Amino acid sequence: MDVVVYGKLGLIFLALALSACAGRPVPSPTPPPELMEGEQQAVYAAALQKLYPASNYVIMDTTATSPIGVDDTASILGRILQEMRGVDQKTADSFQLRNEKTWSVPAGMDLGSTYVLLSQAEMKQLFSQNQNGWQIFYEQHPGAPGITSVSRVGFNDRFNQALVYIGTLSHPLAGEGFIVLLKKVNGTWVVDQQVMTWIS
């Protein structure tokens, strides 16, 4: 008799525990760092070649989601998601979480084109000279589309959808930035949609 009562109580407690957990999101497993880094550089390569096809790039050495760095990523993302179709919520959440602060852009990535990293101090020094800073820049980096900034990449759980910010300044009052949605097709990242976030 006692065994039956305890058995029923156990089932009741189990049911209560399961119902209490039902409304909570299950955290996604953290992927290995090498997988994340490899996929991120593949996304950068695909997005850069689509937006700014070039043989070489000059990329700011810290991540950004706007011309002034990491600036209210949640607000920018909320506006963009009203214009983009089919964005997985996990992709959007990952993008927001991974861009809550600035990070160093890795050196030595395989982007399909050569690139150099530019620090804020180097950019300030370049454009504080008496000469034309942009003229000097293009003399030093012929063929570059300008000074490019990238965010960290947000992914869905299956690593077949990605979201990234890419913006480029090309002259004192010329430039634009985009949030880019990519999808993986037959193992290759391709741009699916892009929404402009700023232009000057």
Model description:
With 200 residues, the protein is an alpha/beta fold. The chain has one domain (30-199). Helix content is 37%, strand content 26%. The chain has six helices and seven strands; from the N terminus they run ααβααβααβββββ. The protein has helices at 2-21, 33-51, 73-81, 89-98, 120-127, 133-140; strands at residues 56-60, 114-118, 147-150, 154-155, 161-171, 174-185, 188-199. Strands 1, 2, 3, 4, 5, 6 and 7 form a seven-stranded mixed beta sheet that branches. A hairpin with a 2-residue loop joins strand 5 (161-171) and strand 6. The model is unreliable at 1-6 and 8-27 (pLDDT under 50).
Brief rundown of the structure:
With 200 residues, this protein is of the alpha/beta class. The chain contains six helices and seven strands, in the order H-H-E-H-H-E-H-H-E-E-E-E-E.
